[in-house]
Design brief:
Length: 360
């Protein structure tokens, strides 16, 4: 059985998903492919690392990349999808550690392939939940559900406006080309300050409740709540709350801008979002700041860090007909500053997880 799932980029709504806020992602056209066949035990191999690795879903978590299929197998078994074993092969065009949701693409594609192998037809919602539980509960990454949701539900030519607090999903037309500029700084959520930021948000939520605010998540706060609240919240919690509240509002405005085809407004919101990540959430890095500033200086409509941060990739909206020149000029600045060539590529909004047909 063969299945695939996409990576994703987030146009706006960073670090809002686990705070109950809005997110506006698209699936990228680059995908992760997982092939699975019946076996009496569990083995996996990746085109990125062609060493065959064995793992046991009933044993302790592996210390290498097979912890992701290990987690998927455990979650599926708990849901009644039982397999005695499988041979799993992985090939991916989604860069690892670039903030493009390579782990969600892997877990989604694995869940789809293993379910097909077991003769079980799982809904896209079931697949998204299985992939999230595998990464969150089993692997131990305290991620939100955005990556798995867009990876499962994506429709070509659209972004999804996802209300993470209530689960509502709205399709928003988005047929533009987005450029991905890789910082070359790779991250892994488990070892980055990501978990620290989550703890800070939890502390801020507890503080707000102590102040008498009846909220389930920080994103339920409004911009009107901020002036008074920021006077009593201690740093750095005040900055974290300001980011969540303003980013949620930016995401709402971005969806409205897309609905009316206002790419200039979307671009301005993207830049404002990057500044908030840099200053209030402190999740950017020097290379990302350089790429955003260079892209805007050379004529981009908008640019921002995408993904959790502390490395990863910058996305940019570039005027049609000027893309190649802008990318070349940004690349020259990047090489002068870092001594490394810029890896840049483009994508449009792609589709979600699916079964693939093997060529005979």
């Amino acid at each position: 059985m063969l299945a695939s799932a996409p990576g994703r980029i987030n146009l706006l709504g960073e670090h809002t998903d686990y705070n109950g806020g809005l997110v506006l992602p698209i699936a990228i056209q680059r995908r992760t492919f997982v092939a699975a066949s019946h076996a009496g035990d569990w083995q996996a191999v990746s085109a990125n690392e062609p060493l065959v690795r064995s793992f046991d879903p009933s044993a302790a978590r592996p210390g290498d990349w097979t912890r992701y299929p290990w987690g998927v197998a455990r979650v599926l078994a708990s849901a009644g999808v039982h397999l005695p074993g499988a041979r799993i092969g992985v090939a991916s065009a989604v860069p690892v550690g670039a903030g493009l949701s390579s782990s969600a693409a892997l877990t989604l594609a694995t869940a789809k392939a293993l379910a097909l192998l077991a003769g079980r037809k799982l809904s896209t919602s079931d697949l998204a939940e299985a992939a999230w539980r595998a990464e969150h509960d089993e692997v131990g990454v305290r991620c939100g559900r955005m990556d798995q949701t867009i990876g499962a539900l994506a429709v070509p030519g659209t972004a999804l406006l996802i209300e993470t607090g209530g689960g509502q999903v709205e399709q928003v037309p988005f047929r533009e080309t987005v450029w991905v500029l890789e910082t070359g700084v790779f991250h892994e959520l488990g070892t980055s300050p990501y978990h620290q930021r989550r703890r800070e948000c939890e502390e801020a939520l507890a503080f707000c409740r102590d102040q008498g605010l009846r909220i389930n998540g920080l994103a339920e706060l409004t911009p009107q709540d901020l002036p008074e609240l920021l006077q009593v919240l201690p740093p750095p919690l005040s900055a974290r709350v300001r980011h969540v509240v303003t980013e949620t509002e930016r995401t709402r405005e971005a969806a409205r801008a897309l609905a009316r085809g206002d790419l200039d407004q979307l671009g301005q919101l993207m830049v404002a979002g990057h500044h908030s990540l840099r200053d209030d959430y402190q999740s950017s890095c020097a290379e990302a700041d350089l790429l955003v500033e260079a892209a805007m200086r050379h004529g981009a409509r908008g640019a921002r860090l995408t993904g959790a941060g502390w490395g990863g990739a910058v996305i940019a909206l570039l005027p049609r007909g000027r893309e190649s020149r802008i990318v070349a000029e940004v690349g020259e600045e990047f090489r002068e500053a870092t001594g490394r060539p810029l890896v840049a590529w483009s994508t449009r909004a792609g589709g979600g997880v699916r079964r693939e047909t093997m060529a005979s």
